[in-house]
Amino acid sequence: xxxxxxxxxxxxxxxxxxxxxxxxxxxxxxxxxxxxxxxxxxxxxxxxxxxxxxxxxxxxxxxxxxxxxxxxxxxxxxxxxxxxxxxxxxxxxxxxxxxxxxxxxxxxxxxxxxxxxxxxxxxxxxxxxxxxxxxxxxxxxxxxxxxxxxxxxxxxx
Length: 157
Prior knowledge:
- This protein is α+β, with helices and mostly antiparallel strands.
- The chain has helices at residues 50-56, 83-86, 90-99, 116-126; strands at residues 12-15, 22-24, 32-34, 38-47, 62-67, 73-79, 105-110, 147-155.
């Protein structure tokens, strides 16, 4: 996790030093997996409403985190075609209504569409005790592992 108290690990692909190494995942079945050779920097944008996040990332592939009022992550999701396709119509407004008065937050980080699913899987796996509202991806490590770092921006409202 990244420091700063917001509970988010943190779209730039940069090569990592060294060669991939086969390691055994201590939390998995003992199968070897390849260590990631690239680091993805997630540039998190903070919103107070899902509809504001949707307006900012309508057709951009992204990862989003639903967080409490202190910025502690509760659920992660992906929107490989953007938030407009994921939360079109009244769905975004329904989330806004559910969040009303809670001061809960939404964080969004753009990612290349080609790695959108892999980033979501990696973050769910890495923080599986935190993302209690994610049912998929908490039992077995993803087959494609990624390194991530974070950069957090101020509120986009």
